[in-house]
């Protein structure tokens, strides 16, 4: 007896109740900033129903505690655009002597993906970027896909390109 192969399924469509932007709790005294961008497919078209979830340390480099939720969500609009507000994360102590540059961990869910995608947002002109072991493991020519571009005072632009020319670096988890 031979069984037929089960077809694979993509992530989504998503149940829309509760699918709205949830900003990371803004810390009093922390550097408040806005990150905006677009999720683009391989042809450069906006992905209109992507969900972007973020996880980050607080401004002191500690993960969620009573004063910081550390988690947020943004949903793309009809043009693939997203925007969220947060507090700039601090440098994060890792295992041993490892120190991570300030970054935001990002998970992307979208129609057409077989699995969620995981990446990071780093900040330009951050001195500790040079010593971050994860950012340093990415080839020089692709590293820019992980670094947001300054777009004004406390404002950054960062696009997620799902495939093709300029594809964002994604990590296996």
What does this molecule look like?
The protein has 173 residues and is mainly beta. It has one domain (32-159): Sandwich (Protocatechuate 3,4-Dioxygenase, subunit A), CATH 2.60.130.10. It contains two helices and eleven strands. The protein has helices spanning 133-136, 140-143, and strands at residues 32-40, 51-56, 71-75, 81-87, 92-93, 99-100, 103-109, 117-122, 149-150, 155-157, 160-161. Strands 1, 4, 9, 10 and 11 form a five-stranded mixed β-sheet that branches. A four-stranded antiparallel β-sheet has the order 3-2-7-8, with no helix packed on it. Strands 5-6 form a two-stranded antiparallel sheet. Strand 9 and strand 10 (155-157) form a beta hairpin. The protein is globular. The model has no long low-confidence stretch (mean pLDDT 87).
The gist of it:
The protein is mostly beta strands. It is built from two helices and eleven strands; from the N terminus they run ββββββββααβββ. A hairpin with a 5-residue loop joins strand 5 and strand 6.
């Amino acid at each position: 007896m031979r069984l037929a192969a089960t077809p694979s399924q993509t992530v989504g469509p998503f149940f829309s109740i509760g699918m709205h932007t949830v900003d990371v709790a803004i810390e009093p005294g922390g550097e408040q900033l806005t990150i905006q961008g677009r999720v683009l497919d391989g042809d450069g078209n906006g992905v209109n129903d992507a969900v972007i979830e973020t996880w980050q340390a607080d401004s002191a480099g500690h993960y969620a505690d009573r004063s910081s939720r550390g988690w947020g969500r943004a949903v793309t609009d009809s043009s693939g655009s997203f925007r969220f507000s947060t507090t700039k994360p601090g440098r994060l102590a890792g295992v041993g002597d490892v120190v991570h540059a300030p970054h935001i961990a990002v998970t992307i869910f979208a129609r057409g993906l077989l699995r969620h995608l995981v990446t990071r947002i780093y900040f330009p002109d951050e001195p500790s970027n040079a010593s971050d072991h994860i950012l340093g493991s990415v080839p020089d020519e692709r590293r820019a896909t992980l670094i947001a571009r300054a777009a004004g005072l406390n404002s950054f632009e960062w696009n997620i390109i799902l495939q093709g020319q300029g594809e964002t670096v994604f990590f296996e988890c």
